[in-house]
Amino acid sequence: MSTSIEDRVAKIEARNKRVEDDKAWEISWTRRISIFLLTYIIVAFYLRFVVHIDPWINALVPAIGFMLSTFTINLLKKEWINRRRGN
Predict the structure, then answer these.
(1) pLDDT computed for residue 2 by the predictor
(2) Of the N and C termini of the chain, which has fewer Cβ atoms inside 10 Å?
C-alpha cells in the first residue's frame, strides 16, 4: 500500500512541476517577445505580398497591440481573482 501512495504522491508532484513550468512560460518575456516577433513577421509578409503596401511600419500595429494586451490581461486577471475571492 505504501508503494501505491508513494507512486501517487510522485505523480502529483510531477504534475505540479509541469503546471508550474507551464505557468512560468505563460508569463515569461521569452514567450511575449517570441509572439511579438512572429506576429510582426507574419503581418509584414501579409501586407507586403498580399496587400502590396510597405509593411514595416504597418506591421507594428498588431504586434504592439499584442504586447499591450499581455499587460492588460494580467491586470484584468488579478482584478478578476481579487473580486472572485471577495478581496
Answers:
(1) 57
(2) N
